[in-house]
Amino acid sequence: MRLEVDIASKTFKSAAGEQHDVIAGVAFTLDAGEVGVLVGPSGCGKSTMLRILAGLDHDFQGRVSRPAGARIGFVFQEPRLLPWRSVEENVRLVAPLANEAKLSALFEILELKAHRNHFPGELSLGLARRVALARAFAIEPEFLILDEPLASLDVALAARLRDEIAMLIGGRSVITLLVTHDVDDAVRLGDRLFLLSPRPARVLAELPIRTPRSKRGDAEIAAITLDIMRRINGAPAERDAS
Amino acid sequence: MPRLLSFAVLLATWWIGSLFAGDAKLPPPPTVLTVMIAEARSGDLFFHLGLTLARVTLAFTLAMSLGAAIGYLMGRVRLADRLGDPWLILLLNLPALVVIVLAYIWAGLTEVAAIAAIAINKLPTAVVTLREGARALEAALDEMATVFALPRWKKFRHVILPQLSPYIAAAARSGLSLVWKIVLVAELLGRPNGVGFEIGVAFQLFDIPLLLAYSLSFAAVVLLIETLLVQPFEARLSRWRPRAA
Predict the structure, then answer these.
(1) What region holds the ABC transporter domain (chain A) (predicted)?
(2) Cβ contacts of A119 on chain B, cutoff 8 Å
(3) Strand (E) positions, chain A?
(4) Are residues A122 and B242, on separate chains, in Cβ contact within 8 Å?
């Protein structure tokens, strides 16, 4: 199973009628079991790209080939839960085949056990994200898309959720595409990083990380992060702690 | 408790009012109650109330289902909106009386004409409300349903319908009050039974106790349906909201 992406260009017209270039050449491939990370500044067109890859946007120049009929698990930037359905119903609705044991395991890992019967409006952003993650993993996706899953969470919470995501991805043979503007997250989770330019997005560099996720030490992570920072900015920069 | 108190105040005002206006113009509550009991004993009250209620139910159901379907279509499909809009504006501004009279002329003084006329009066408001609801549907949730490949029916039931439900409730609420009012006019003009017919009789005989007996029984039925059916339904629909405003 393989994802092949070759987007030559994507433009859209603003309400005022002006033409904007969002993507100006992004090509890569990902195999099952690989985690690709699109790293780029905010507003560089990452979310647009994800919409194209998920088949929500067909208006672009180029080609995207997904495994035919692949189940897609999408964790949107805003969790996009159904506010009128409980946490459990939100998950079960998209994954009618998931059995109780699997759901329990998911809820256990994502620390949602106590929240099964809550409505999304009663949850914090961190919890709502976890529900969105549970929903995406419950369908046993063949293609998993994570759009800034750690944005707007405090550092400790983000780190915990990152470990949970790593654990969930670890046991599965799934094509994973993660989008983030946080280089540290990218280095900790990714197998192959694609550095994107500011809008319109191009791939500036492709960096494979050969050490398995669980074996990456802090020193190695710091070194790779520094290398990426240098490539992006020409000089080491402060870590973007948002 | 406050409800009961408020009801008692209403009753007291009525009683005091009847003392000033005189029995002939505004009979006191006991007089009306006596008539009500007599009408109930003879079975007339329930007969007429039942018929009116049946007409309301039929016309309301017809107008709501048709109006919801048309409104949804007009909110989702631009061409349907363009085509339907002039008709909608015409129907919205057509006086109820015109519709009822025309229906009776064209279809005769029949049950079908009465129910159709009532339904046609309610239809456009249902269409307008549901059209707004369909326009306000969340694109983000639509995309979510598409990505996760929710089957059509599931998507309608769990994603679309809950978003429309406040609009459906609003249309039902305003529509019901409209139907309550119009059904009596339709009965007065062209039916040989029903609360509207009885009120017409009372009017011709200047029988104010009879008139009040029927109007108040009718009001009681409306109130009962509102508290026992409409309000619990609305409460159930909004139970997911963290705190109702």
Answers:
(1) 3-223
(2) 240, 242
(3) 2-13, 19-23, 26-31, 35-39, 61-65, 72-75, 143-147, 175-180, 192-196, 203-208
(4) yes
For residue A221, what are the domain limits? 2-70+142-233
* Chain A environment of B148 (Cβ under 8 Å): 72-74, 94, 135, 139
Residues sharing a CB contact under 8 Å with residue B146, sequence separation 6 or more, in sequence order? A55, A56
**Any domain includes A136:** no
Residues A137-185 pLDDT 10s: 999 999 999 999 988 888 888 898 898 899 888 878 899 999 988 888 8
Total domain count for chain A? 1
Looking at residue A54, which CATH number applies to its domain?
A: 3.40.50.300
Q: Which CATH class is domain B44-237?
A: mainly alpha
Mean pLDDT value across residues B162-179 = 88
* Interface mutation target, options B138, B144, B163, B168, chain A, most CBs of A under 10 Å: B144
Q: For residue B139, what are the CA distances in angstroms to A58, B135, B160?
A: 16, 10, 11
Interface test with B, best of A50, A71, A76, A94 (most B CBs within 10 A): A94
Local structure of A79: helix, strand or coil: coil
What pLDDT digit, counting tens, does each position of A101-142 carry?
Answer: 999 999 998 889 999 999 999 999 989 999 999 999 999 999
Residue A201 has a CB neighbour count (10 Å cut-off) of: 26
B239: nearest CA partner in chain A: A84
Write the ipTM: 0.85
Structure confidence by residue, pLDDT tens digits, A48-100: 899 999 989 888 899 998 877 889 999 998 999 999 999 999 999 999 988 89
Round to whole Å and give the CA distance between B235 and B239: 6
Asked if A39 contacts A91 with a C-beta cutoff of 8 angstroms, the reply is no
CB of B118 closer than 8 Å to CB of B183: yes
- The helix (run of H) or strand (run of E) holding residue A119 is none
User: By the 8 A CB rule, do A207 and A228 touch?
Assistant: yes
Q: What is the pLDDT of residues A56-70, one digit of tens each?
A: 988 889 999 887 788
d(Cα A173, Cα A189) in Å, to the nearest integer? 15
Q: Which residue has the higher pLDDT, B39 or A235?
A: B39
Tokens for B172, please give them.
């039902």
Domain boundaries, chain B: 44-237
Closest CA to B162 of A72, A186, A146, A83: A83
